[in-house]
């Protein structure tokens, strides 16, 4: 029996086996007759059927728990109360668990996927979007729903539909699997206190063409970048328009309008903007045109002039003499010397620097970690250095230039060298440097610490400890705002009281509080929300301070990486994830099925690979 030959798969609620179809001569129908099992569950739409009589079972209270376990659904009020939830839920075996902090099964080297999902499950805008998007289609709720709950459900679906570019039915299979997994993680009606991510693992394997597959370890930073892009496309986002050269205002306005059309919850949450200044230094031939231009200008080549150039220039002027008998005055040897001198000037090697400035959107920032020391300590072990995160962030200070990867230089130089050998006047890249200026930071900032380096022989890991603060991480010194975009000032209470209803809603919408602007009906209520917003939340939003939301680390066994061993640290290592329970402030460490409490002091000194920071004030509720 092939289950994938039909979208209608039914589960027998007596023995738990899966069968295809429910009509006559189908495996489900045959099983109901042979085994005497009569109640079946449709795994896609959650409907219940009695076979072989073939009628639907409706409004049965005893089946409500099964519906909630199969397709968990949430209302907007329930989602808003998730971060303040302190009560533990209980599964069928009597084990207590905290919704949102449950373990995920490791399906053979899928711990990198588990950690990335656990981290994204605690990014509030992303979590709320996928919880409500998947819940809007489940309107049976186990066959029981009164008029009041139906009214609230429809209202929540309408509010969430304004944020979606596509209806949930048109989401990609990857986005649907991700939404279902998040709903299972945060569901308080689990039959077991852990979750199996097999549906998401299969969707990832198909979408990536088995780049991220079961049994194959992967780097969590690369998977996170790929997953965010796939989720952006899967919910209706557009692709393209990441780089823009700095041109006139019309070009910038058109690019901004195109960007707005392709925005999704992924871009709204994680997208920032950085200005990249690239300086390329090339070694190239001067060329005949440049040599003739130097001759006609009398030997002026920027700041340099040589006696040889002046002599050639004078001879070139004499060569242009068209008086009668001028050819008789010059000998063939002198003309030959002129041509040789001109050719030598054209073949002269010069160095040229070209500078270009582009604005690039980013979803995560990749940071280069200082290399580990070559020398060992007195006991023969490697000295693991420690670097603060502010030193690693010097790459984005707007002043320092960093070299481009050597592999990229070699590839470009090889192409240009082939062009030069074929007679082209293109040069060979000697050096390529870039300078980064952060123009805009997102509400949720992802930092990728690049620890792994791949070469032709093996994979190396940098064990340097990067120390970072868990709270109040100030990034205001790294922001270079554009001209005409000064630091916003906090309006006073008198200014807010003089605003109209439209201006009050614009103030809340500008800082990402559309929910408050839409839910407020009376002006007095809206005014009170705005006064509370500017006194408690807005100052933190403007200060560019961040708090840690999630941290993903990579650990390797002690024997991996020693001299004489050729073991791959990426394959032999494992991932862990640290997330915080907002209601109690307690940090939890999750590694596959293991969920334990931990101290925040231990998080800042671990071998972190991915850091997700939240701007202060974004998570505050009015």
What does this structure look like?
By secondary structure, the protein is α+β, with helices and mostly antiparallel strands. The strands form seven sheets. Strands 13, 17, 21, 22, 23, 24, 25 and 26 form an eight-stranded mixed sheet that branches. Strands 2-1-3-4-5 form a five-stranded antiparallel sheet, covered by helices on one side. Strands 10-12-11-16-15 form a five-stranded antiparallel sheet. A hairpin with a 5-residue loop joins β1 (9-12) and β2 (18-20). It is globular and about 115 Å long. 27% of the residues are buried.
Properties at a glance:
36% helix, five-stranded antiparallel β-sheet, 622 residues, 24 helices, globular, alpha+beta, eight-stranded mixed β-sheet
SSE order and pairing:
Layout: E1 9-12, E2 18-20, H1 27-35, E3 39-42, E4 48-50, E5 55-57, H2 64-70, H3 76-80, E6 89-90, E7 96-97, E8 103-104, H4 111-120, H5 124-135, H6 147-161, H7 173-185, E9 194-195, H8 198-207, H9 220-234, E10 243-245, H10 249-261, H11 265-270, E11 272-285, H12 288-296, H13 307-319, H14 326-329, H15 332-346, E12 349-362, E13 365-368, E14 386-388, H16 389-392, E15 402-403, H17 406-421, E16 428-440, E17 444-450, E18 452-454, E19 459-461, E20 465-467, E21 473-474, H18 493-497, H19 501-510, H20 514-519, H21 523-536, H22 538-542, E22 545-555, H23 569-572, E23 574-580, E24 587-591, E25 594-598, H24 600-603, E26 608-615
Parallel strand pairs: 8-9, 13-17, 14-20
Antiparallel strand pairs: 1-2, 1-3, 3-4, 4-5, 6-7, 10-12, 11-12, 11-16, 15-16, 17-26, 18-19, 21-22, 22-23, 22-26, 23-24, 24-25
Helix pairs in contact: 5-6, 5-7, 7-8, 12-15, 13-15, 19-21
């Amino acid at each position: 029996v092939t289950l994938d030959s039909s979208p209608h798969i039914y589960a027998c609620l007596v023995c738990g086996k899966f069968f295809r179809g429910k009509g006559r001569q189908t495996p489900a129908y045959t099983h109901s007759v042979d085994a005497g099992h009569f109640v079946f569950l449709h795994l896609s739409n959650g409907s219940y059927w009695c076979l072989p009589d073939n009628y639907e079972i409706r409004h049965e209270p005893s089946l409500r728990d099964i519906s909630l376990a199969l397709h968990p659904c949430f209302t907007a009020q329930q989602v808003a109360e998730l971060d303040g939830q302190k009560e533990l839920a209980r599964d069928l075996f009597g084990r207590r668990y905290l919704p949102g902090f449950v373990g995920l099964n490791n399906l053979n080297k899928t711990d990198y996927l588990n950690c990335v999902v656990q981290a994204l499950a605690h990014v509030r805008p992303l979590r709320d979007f996928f919880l409500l998007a998947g819940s809007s289609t489940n309107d049976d709720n186990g066959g029981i729903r009164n008029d009041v709950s139906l009214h609230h459900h429809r209202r929540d679906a309408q509010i969430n539909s304004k944020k979606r570019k596509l209806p949930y039915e048109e989401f990609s299979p990857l986005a649907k699997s991700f939404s279902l997994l998040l709903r299972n993680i945060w569901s308080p009606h689990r039959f077991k206190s852990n979750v199996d991510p097999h549906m998401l693992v299969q969707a990832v394997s198909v979408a990536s063409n088995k780049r991220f597959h079961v049994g194959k370890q992967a780097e969590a930073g690369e998977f996170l970048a790929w997953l965010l892009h796939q989720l952006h496309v899967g919910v209706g986002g557009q692709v393209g328009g990441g780089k823009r050269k700095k041109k006139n205002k019309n070009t910038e306005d058109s690019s901004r309008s195109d960007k707005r059309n392709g925005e999704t919850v992924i871009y709204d949450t994680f997208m920032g903007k950085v200005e990249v200044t690239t300086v390329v230094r090339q070694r190239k031939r001067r060329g005949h045109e440049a040599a003739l231009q130097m001759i006609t200008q009398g030997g002026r080549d920027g700041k340099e002039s040589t006696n040889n150039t002046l002599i050639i220039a004078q001879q070139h002027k004499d060569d242009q003499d068209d008086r009668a008998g001028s050819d008789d005055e010059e000998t063939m040897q002198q003309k030959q010397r002129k041509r040789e001198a001109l050719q030598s000037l054209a073949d002269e090697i010069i160095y040229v620097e070209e500078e270009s400035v582009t604005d690039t959107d980013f979803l995560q920032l990749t940071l280069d970690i200082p290399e580990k020391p070559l020398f060992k300590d007195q006991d023969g072990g490697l000295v693991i250095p420690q670097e603060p995160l502010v030193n690693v962030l010097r790459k984005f200070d707007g002043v320092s230039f960093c070299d481009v990867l050597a592999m990229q230089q070699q590839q470009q130089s090889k192409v240009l060298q082939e062009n030069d050998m074929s007679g082209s006047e293109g040069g060979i890249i000697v050096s390529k440097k870039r300078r980064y200026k952060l123009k805009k930071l997102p509400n949720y900032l992802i930092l990728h610490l690049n620890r792994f380096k791949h070469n032709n022989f093996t994979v190396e890991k940098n064990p340097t400890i990067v120390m970072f603060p868990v709270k109040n991480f100030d990034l205001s010194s790294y922001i270079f705002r554009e001209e005409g975009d000064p630091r916003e000032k906090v309006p006073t209470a008198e200014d807010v009281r003089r605003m109209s209803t439209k201006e009050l809603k614009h103030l809340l919408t500008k800082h990402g509080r559309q929910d408050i602007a839409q839910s407020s009906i009376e002006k007095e209520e809206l005014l009170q929300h705005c006064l509370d917003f500017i006194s408690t939340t807005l100052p933190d939003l403007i200060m560019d301070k961040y708090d840690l939301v999630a941290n993903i680390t990579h650990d390797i066994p002690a024997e991996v990486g020693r001299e004489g061993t050729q073991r791959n640290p990426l394959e032999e290592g494992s991932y862990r994830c640290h997330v915080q329970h907002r209601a109690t402030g307690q940090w939890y460490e999750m590694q596959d099925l293991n969920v334990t409490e931990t101290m925040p002091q231990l998080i800042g000194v671990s071998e972190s690979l991915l850091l997700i920071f939240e701007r202060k004030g974004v998570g505050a509720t009015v």
